[in-house]
């Protein structure tokens, strides 16, 4: 039982050092369709289905 508790504590400590999950970036087109950044994004994504 002690080994199980020690194992669980070790795993929990290891998970605490992981970086937070990445959040999806907000598209510049959601802010303004006419912005330069939105036009560049549309240019780069022209061949993406």
TrEMBL record:
Taxonomy, superkingdom: Bacteria
Lineage of origin: Bacteria, Pseudomonadati, Pseudomonadota, Betaproteobacteria, Burkholderiales
Signal peptide: 1-24
Protein name: Lipoprotein
UniProt keywords, alphabetically: Signal
Entry annotated with the keyword Signal: yes
Source organism of the structure: Ramlibacter albus
PROSITE patterns per record: PROKAR_LIPOPROTEIN (PS51257)
